[in-house]
Amino acid sequence: MSGETRxxxxxxARRTGLSVKTIRYYADSGLVPPTDRxxxxxxxxxxxxxxxxxxxxxxxxxxxxxxxxRRVVNQEVPLPVVAxxxxxxxxxxxxxxxLRQAVLTVAARRGSGPxxxxxxxxxxxxxxxxxxxxxxxxxxxxxxxxGDQPAYQGVIASMTPELPDDPSTEQIEAWLELAELCREPxxxxxxxxxxxxxxxxxxxxxxxxxxxVAVVRDAVAPALAAGLDPTSPDADxxxxxxxxxxxxxxxxxxxxxxxxxxxxxxxxxDDPRRDRYLDLxxxxxxxxxxxxxxxxxxxxxxxxxARMPEPAR
Length: 313
Hints:
single chain, 15 helices, elongated
């Protein structure tokens, strides 16, 4: 050791930030044996021992157990092999922690009781096959009798969520809420009626046409932005634009019957859960979220009702 810098165990503790007790334990267990001893029996550590101790500390900080660290520092197993295996194990742990975080976050936000927390936890742990089955059952109910048509096959595909293999906490939270929507009987029934109405509005052969919601959304957006009162005379041109376009697209006269038909479709679509499903779908699939349709639909329902005669009593 002639010419080498030597450190006592106390100096090594100050240098590394580890306690004397920890360094002594590493020395006694053979992880970082002292380079030499002084005539009085004190442990001395040279540069190689310092470097070895730094490696041990780093691997411990990264979560490796002492048995694995001993194999690495004794060159019984290559460090890259250990690092790869440990990184893979950590990835699994991180995913589990994200699932737990999402469940607890949703439960705290809702003020959930034990039963709901248990159900959220179950939904978070579904396998990819189980998630796919749950969604397929929902969409199969919504589009029953329509799913074999090419146009609706595309719609079904666009409404199918795909939770990534390594989802973020936000995506797990989105999945929990979307899964609950998929299982909600009233929402399933409402979406099924919407699909039937959409099919009825597209019973004329030809190019795809926007449905009632799309016609309203596009025409009402400027009025919403301007804060226009739907019951005021200033809203008359907006109502005329929508009813005229809807009548033209579906080859109906722009009369009271058409307006009642349009109102029926909008009343069914006036459900924030529909917008919420699409927003959650966008989060899960990594898409940009769209503008909510309910504000435009609600505005036009009020505008249309203000211009329809009261039903006879």
